[in-house]
Amino acid sequence: MLRSTFLHLPGVGAVTEVRLWRRGLVDWKLLADEEAVAGLGPEHLETLRREIRLGEQALRELKAEWFARRLPPSEHWRLHPEFRSRTAFLDIETTGLSPYNGIVTVVGVHGGGGFRSFVADEDLEEMPAYLRRFEVLVTFNGSLFDVPFLEATFPSWVPPPAHIDLRFLLRRLGYSGGLKRIEQQLGLGDRTGVEGVHGLDAVRLWEEYRRGRRASLDRLVKYNRADTVNLEPLLDFAVREMSHRLLGPMPLELFAGPS
Question: HSE-up of 224 (CA within 13 Å, CB side)?
Fold first, then answer.
């Protein structure tokens, strides 16, 4: 989908992008190769060619920030799956609903070929440095919950330049409610071993751990891992469906590759 995107180009909005697609100009190369395009003056078209060349370079170098600055935040999903190797799927557990009345207890990060947990009073302070290796952040409701909590916990932390909040992307596709409800609707994700565990249980498990029950922390981390890892198939689904709605069917192999 990224190579079919024109919204990041100067003077190109949603209407113009759709108009280009309807004329058969469905990727950067096709547009760059056109000698003339109705509605685009020669100087504007040459500007677009220059920007396309810069975009090709940014994609080769996997610089998500270049695209993130130019695309509306609601369209950062278009960076997937080209930036899969630079993507961090993240979920946090807390003791409250606000940074002012709760703390971050566990952070799960899935990406770069593995999963990493960070636990309060153990290694949570290592999380900001770990996340610097990623350029795309994927959360569920993270723009309203996870990111504000982490910014309050680590005031100097700078999130990755691109952020895909699956809660709102999936809502655009007609799926609303909590993460687990949507997983069930779509038949995606794996919660083996933590079936029936929910947010309030996460608070209880942390309190049990603080009272000396190590097994409760192990269960909390396992629950957090499911919340985190399950974001990846949901993102694959959402990007495939959004791409289909805009451009038509997308080959499944486009969404394969290392996590």
Answer: 28
